[in-house]
Amino acid sequence: MTQVGHATARALLRRLAVEQAECRVPSLTAAIVRDGRTAWFGGRGRVGGAPPTPATQYRIGSITKSMVAVVVMRLRDEGLLRLSDPIGDHVKQTPLGQLTIAQLLSHTAGLTAEPPTTWWERSPGVPAADLLELLGPQDVKHRPGRRFHYSNVGFALLGELVAALRGTSWLSAVRGEVLAPLGMNDTTARPRAPHATGYAVHPWADVVQAEPEHDAEAMAPAGQLWSTTHDLASWAVFLGGDTGGVLCPGTLEEMREPVGVDDGDAWTGAFGLGLQLARSGGRRLAGHSGSMPGFLATVWADAGEGMGALFMANTTSGMTGTLLTDLLDIVQEYEPRLPDEWQPVAADPGLLALTGLWHWGPKPYALRLLPEGGLSLEPVGGAGRASRFVPQGDGTWLGLDGYYAGETLRVAADHLDLNTFIFTREPYSPGAPVPGGVRDWHA
Q1: Model's pTM, two decimal places?
Q2: CATH match of 6-334 with 3.40.710.10
Q3: In the chain, how long is the greatest CA-to-CA distance?
Q4: What range does the record give for the signal peptide (predicted)?
């Protein structure tokens, strides 16, 4: 199972082997996806006396959250909820009804990280009704919206939201709306053979101890699922933008937009709507990590490069944290992507006439016609506000990104009106409506 060259495959396998040996991981699998399919798979260690395969199951922990989040976004796209809705509008029995759905998805609700029960990851779960009865105002640790604060409890509430609006369990909804359409048939709530046993590795000796595994019940939406390298490769393809009809591509882009920063001043890690985000080596990655007793897993997708990486391991702790970015670096070094060939495209003469130099006051901007028919307005020299625009049915243009995202651009005979900002062909053109009357440049 490889589409990479021999030298690349050898370098990838060596990096995986170093991780497994030096971090003392009982077993470890990893994969690279590229252009919509698995380009490389590697496995080290033993599961049941044999090397792990793409069909070997591992618990994926909090990667479960991102799949629950997709169902929530589908509900939004269907008009059954708004992200600004308080969760109490849909889950009536919660005492934390003031927290919004968007805040719960992005871990900015200020909600406590763990439930007020026994250590939920290592204990049998409690029913949702029991958990909701235990929660109260004391479990909101920060002003909602103020800061990022990761909350497993928040996804327990989102699981109840899905159940309430779908009239079924969160698991049935995820299985029917996400897993089955993506062909992830080996992603399950409880392990099935062949699966790895979760182990804790002794810190000072080369011995292991099996970790417990339970049905988390109310907390299950936060980390219940098990999966395989084969299935998680499909998930990486999805996260990279090939949504397979499960989600509108624009909605996935919305999920990948950063909402809260989770590493303080470093600003290399963030959260979107149910997705972890990272910036590494010039890449912008989206995905999620997972950690449950005896298991670690992570999946990252780089939509800009059409590539992703994932790993699964049956160890509680001890891995380096750089395995996936190192694997992506190896592919970039050995087999960098070629840029797409440039080709000319047909252009509307009226739009072509709009292109070129415009001025916001004295500042020059370049208006370019994009291949798909949109417009790009960006400052000459690169510093300043830049946005792309798409045409609307009424003859206006809608900002897609940057400072002018969501704002309206109107084209007049001699100027551009961008949400009251006037752009003219000459600096402060005398004929422009604003400021008008500026006619004399002098020493």
Answers
A1: 0.92
A2: yes
A3: 85
A4: none
